[in-house]
Write a structure and sequence with these properties.
Elements: H1 3-8, E1 10-13, E2 17-20, E3 24-30, H2 40-48, E4 62-65, E5 68-72, E6 86-92, E7 95-100, E8 118-124, E9 129-134, E10 137-138, E11 142-143, E12 148-153, E13 158-164, E14 177-185, E15 188-196, E16 201-206, E17 211-215, E18 229-232, E19 235-238, E20 243-248, E21 254-259, E22 264-269, H3 270-274, E23 284-288, E24 296-298, E25 303-307, E26 312-316, H4 318-325, E27 337-342, E28 350-355, E29 360-365, E30 385-391, H5 401-404, E31 407-410, E32 415-418, H6 425-429
Antiparallel strand pairs: 1-2, 3-30, 4-5, 5-6, 6-7, 8-9, 9-12, 10-11, 12-13, 14-15, 15-16, 16-17, 18-19, 20-21, 21-22, 22-23, 24-25, 25-26, 26-27, 28-29, 29-30, 31-32
Length: about 425
């Protein structure tokens, strides 16, 4: 289908509003993040003692749940001045602010029961649980706490679990836990797979046994030093960063990942990751992306990723390549890459992604390539942090995962068999339907 015709196709969600595929909506933009302080006096005191230095906070991760938007604010280059690392976006007296999530106490630097450094999180829409990865390090210098996974119940705003990751798996002094996906088995979250963008390997965690383990492969390292150089708006930047972005296929059969300092997209079966087995001969190079990328996400139809050197978001049309190449998913090559949105100025560094239950793809753009020198780009009338959403008519890989992966007992045949629900909720609600 012609791309222009594709982008002009309109859809009706429910019976309320007509949406257009591929049309970006700017939801928020900022040059400075303003937090929801308990009192004005506490804010002023924090500014005075420099526990809050406004220009040091930058949004990175994003997830949504039932209309609410959650973001991470990693304590990356500085050891102070960033009072909050995980927040919910709220409106207070007509002004958009960042409310510490779940509360101020959970942001306490130096308290190992609290959050120290959050880059990414994942929300399971089936349970309302948020899984947060915390590296335990601040400013890449203060190795304050062990790395951990913290689980919050978004329905009650309470912490329900904390899993500390052992030093022999996640180094307390070197790790850069960057992104994660959840793996459903028999109707529930069984595993998490986390990228370590410093040491260059995958961290696996089994929620049933409480076991943490690491998985290494040459594909998780920087491929070619020349590939780590990217040109963004006429400037060259070097990011020799290993494994970074990660995505889970909607059938929970494969994990996709790539290094930040490279173009190649890799695929590995979850059967290998679940068994803590060696990844030798299990990893497959799917093909080269149009650009280096940071975050990525798999929906029910497409694999989305940021094209950093192009200031754009692309998607891999997996279904089309399977049909045209007449190959199965474990052999198909990355060929059909479609530009979804692009903006040379306002979409610099499309960082992380989320898919909501209404068919919208959300993402953050934050000019991360120049974050080391905040004074150079913090201009009140020129925001550098933005939250976008784009209607794509599909939900995320976790949509209805509990029912799709539950094994149901067939009393007639006296055997167990998997019940896979293929319908997309969005498709069922649409008055008109067009295949993308």
């Amino acid at each position: 289908m012609d791309l222009m015709l594709l982008m002009a196709a309109s859809f009706v969600v429910g019976n309320v509003q007509t949406q257009t595929f591929g049309e970006p909506v700017l939801v928020h933009e900022w040059s400075i993040l303003e937090f929801d302080w308990p009192t004005v006096e506490q804010r002023e005191e924090s500014v005075q003692n420099e526990s809050y230095i406004p220009e040091r906070s930058i949004i990175a991760g994003i997830k949504t749940y039932k209309g609410d938007v959650y973001v991470s604010i990693p304590r990356w280059f500085w050891t102070s001045g960033q009072p909050v690392t995980l927040a919910k976006i709220v409106e207070v007296d007509g002004q958009v602010k960042f409310r510490p999530y779940p509360n101020w106490a959970a942001q306490k630097q130096g308290n190992c029961q609290a959050l120290q450094y959050v880059w990414s999180m994942e929300i399971d829409p089936n349970t309302g649980l948020m899984y947060v990865i915390d590296s335990g390090r601040v400013g890449m210098k203060l190795d304050l706490c062990p790395a951990k996974i913290v689980v919050y119940d978004l329905k009650t705003d309470q912490q329900v679990q904390l899993y500390e990751l052992p030093d022999e798996v996640v180094s307390r002094s070197r790790n850069f836990l960057n992104d994660l996906v959840l793996d459903y088995v028999d109707g529930q979250v069984r595993y998490a797979y986390i990228t370590d963008a410093n040491d260059g390997y995958l961290v696996g965690f089994d929620f049933q046994t409480g076991k943490a383990y690491k998985m290494e492969h040459s594909s998780m390292k920087v491929e070619n030093i020349n590939d780590s150089v990217m040109e963004i708006v006429n400037y060259l930047y070097n990011f020799p960063v290993p494994i970074d972005g990660i995505a889970m296929s909607p059938d929970f059969q494969y994990v996709y990942y790539s290094v930040l300092g490279g173009y190649d997209l890799f695929q590995v079966p979850t059967s290998a990751l679940r068994n803590y087995s060696t990844l030798e001969y299990k990893v497959r190079n799917v093909g080269k992306k149009v650009s280096q990328s940071d975050g990525m996400i798999h929906g029910t139809k497409h694999l989305y990723y940021g094209a950093l050197s192009l200031n754009a978001v692309y998607y891999w049309d997996v279904k089309r390549d399977i049909e045209q190449q007449e190959l199965a998913i474990d052999k198909v090559k990355l060929t059909t890459q479609v530009k979804l949105v692009q903006d040379e100025k306002k979409m610099q560094w499309p960082d992380t992604f989320a898919l909501d239950e209404n068919g919208w793809l959300w993402f953050v753009s934050n000019r991360l390539q120049i974050v080391k020198s905040p004074k150079k780009f913090i201009v009140p009338k020129d925001p550098h942090m933005r939250i976008w959403k784009v209607y794509v008519n599909e939900t995320g890989y976790l949509h209805e995962a509990s029912s799709r992966t539950t094994r149901r007992f067939d009393t007639n045949a006296n055997v167990k068999k998997s019940s896979v629900i293929k319908e997309n909720l969005i498709d069922k609600e649409m008055v008109t339907k067009n295949e993308l």
